[in-house]
Amino acid sequence: MSRQIIINSGIREKRAGILVNNRLEDVFFEQDTYEQIAGNIYSGIVRDVLPGMQAAFVDIGSDRNAFLHISDLFPMLNTDQLERWKNNKLGIQHVLQPGQELLIQVIKEAIGSKGPKVTCKITIPGRYFVLLPYENRVNISRKINEPEERQRLSKLTDKLLGDKYGVIIRTNAAGKGYDELKMDLDYLTHTWDEVQNENSKKNAPSLIYQHVGLIQQIIRDHLSDDIDKLVIDNHDDYQKIVRMLNRITPHLSKKIVYYQRKNPIFTVYGIEKELSRVLNRRVWLDSGGYIIIDKTEALVAIDVNTGKYTGKKNLQDTVFKTNLEAAKEIARQLRLRDIGGIIIIDFIDMTIREHQERVLAALSKELARDKTKTALLGLTQLGLVEMTRKKVREGYGELIQKECPYCQGTGMVVSEGTMSLRVIREINELAVNEDFSALYLEMHPRVAAVLIGTGGEKLAELEEKFALDIYVSGNDELHIEDYTIKKGKKEEMADLALPVKEGEEYRLLIEEKQLNNPEDGIARIKGYIIIIKGGGHLVGDKLNVKITDVARTFARAEITK
């Protein structure tokens, strides 16, 4: 199995992708425009204590106060308070008071209108260990499943650390010797000493420790013996990585490759193309089936469909194979999009129990590859799969997109017909309350076409109804829900509206036949109708034409050679 790490290190953005057999399986971002503070340690000041929520808001020096729940106060609680908390008899007001200073760590970025979430349970991650400064327990990654290796690592850690601190032994520690493990632990304990020293010198609120950048995270968490190579397109960062690895794991430095080709690295490795698909609501499966991913405030809903896949045996076999393929792709999409929170999956209905179990097992196996904590809760009575994925920060879509200012996040805009009716209602209101002889309307060409009608008959009806001269102009740069109305004298409005003059030449697309005279064709310039003599049989062609006559609602033209 081929495994590669590809890093694009730009001026204002760093991106990393992990390829497995040349297929993108994980992606990570760091942008100057989006400050990531998860992992940072702050000296904070309690501003509000809310007994009803068993929580407090803590000032860490950012725009929004951080949220601290009583369950994250563990290091501050004495034995008596711990016992009372376990028996639901301890209120947060008994532990915290406004103005109190705390050493806290951000565990969840600010998302939407919510501020960051913090904890007093500080952790400092390294390559082989996660240091737990306030504890003295040793936990070993469940992915290290050989009893002899677990026992070896436990004994080595006890020898290196004693009972001063607690640690989590990470998967990367498997097979590593005393010197490598000691170097990592020394680094972590030294970092904690620096945190305590900084905290004693700085006034709250202030940043005490900043988490490492993206490239260092990738080296720490993802570069291992099973990676074939790491390719990076920035020479300075390439040299930094090699120097760092020569110091801590020299044999891995040989896997680092400096990318020197002119074409962008993410384009050459196919990552850019894959990232453009990550924004799509619909994800096609290789078989022809597809999944739909919809995000709401409360949860993420994922729907599985057979699509073009009809199978070769029977319906149940087709459904099973589609669901099996979808289970693998869903786990991958969760990683690529960094989707978190509650996730509901609507697989295609399976009547065979064995099929249900195998699809859930496949999903569970793929989720086990995710470094972000996930929990698969099983099937509901409606046949839906419930699961959760820890949400630490905004997902990829939220990072590079924002809510549409026109549809307000609904994904829908008003139709052309409805917009034309909206314009008519405003004309009616103006005509009742004000005195003028003509109107000039500017709007999106598709709305203009509906308002004018084929041959201008609908516009003529409006003029007759309101006893006004109405001039309509289309503007491609306007959003379909935007328009302007100007009122005044006929001559003034006519000068604004007419987009063509007699004798001018254009190259135009014949869009349709003229309703009253099918021998002639219809073209449009900014919604303004051009009737082209003899163009009725040339619909779909682009022709050179010359304007021969200009009227208020349309112009006439003849085909030129």
UniProtKB/TrEMBL annotation:
The record's listing under SMART domains reads: S1 (SM00316)
Q: Which coenzyme or cofactor does it need?
A: Mg(2+)
Primary site of residence:
cytoplasm
| Location(s) in or outside the cell | Cytoplasm
What lineage is on file? Bacteria, Bacillati, Bacillota, Clostridia, Halanaerobiales
Task: Give the UniProt record's GO annotations in the biological process aspect.
Answer: rRNA processing; tRNA processing
Q: Name one Pfam family in it.
A: RNase_E_G
InterPro entries for this protein = NA-bd_OB-fold, RNA-bd_AU-1/RNase_E/G, RNase_E/G, RNase_E_G_thioredoxin-like, S1_domain, TRAM_dom
The family database entries (CDD domains) matched by this protein are listed as: S1_RNase_E
Protein name as annotated: Ribonuclease G
Task: Enumerate the PROSITE patterns for this protein.
Answer: S1, TRAM
One GO cellular component term of this record is: cytoplasm
UniProt KW tRNA processing keyword? yes
Record flagged with keyword Ion transport: no
Q: What family does the database annotate?
A: Belongs to the RNase E/G family. RNase G subfamily.
Q: Where is the TRAM domain?
A: 499-561
Keyword terms, alphabetized: Cell inner membrane, Cell membrane, Cytoplasm, Endonuclease, Hydrolase, Magnesium, Membrane, Metal-binding, Nuclease, RNA-binding, rRNA processing, rRNA-binding, tRNA processing
Q: Which positions fall inside the S1 motif domain?
A: 39-121
Which GO-annotated molecular functions does the record name?
endonuclease activity; hydrolase activity; metal ion binding; RNA nuclease activity; rRNA binding
UniProt organism field: Iocasia fonsfrigidae
